[in-house]
Specification:
This protein is an alpha+beta fold and 82 residues long. It has helices at 41-55, 70-78, and strands spanning 2-7, 10-19, 24-32, 60-62. Pfam families: Acetyltransf_1 (PF00583).
């Protein structure tokens, strides 16, 4: 499933999650247009995606990032990802 945040019909942030097993999904392709970064758009979209995953029965969400995405790491840590 993919979700997107729109402004005036234009995608400004998006993310998705894929099925891993009956209890776990993986967040994928989390991205926010740089003009909207640090404005809460990515946080809101991530919250929405996680709520949707719970409504579909997932109990756990996982993700992976590379070491250079420090801003993304802070956002994920704020959502209790390790």
């Amino acid at each position: 499933m993919f979700v997107a945040a729109l402004e005036d019909g234009t995608v400004i942030a998006s993310c998705g999650f894929t099925h891993q097993n009956n209890e776990t999904c993986e967040l994928t392709r989390v991205a926010t247009d740089e003009r909207y970064q640090r404005k809460g758009v990515g946080q809101a979209l991530l919250t929405f995606a996680l709520q949707q995953s719970v409504s579909l029965g997932y109990k756990t969400a996982v993700l992976s990032t590379n070491g250079v995405q420090t801003a993304a790491h802070r956002m994920y840590e704020a959502k209790c990802f390790k």
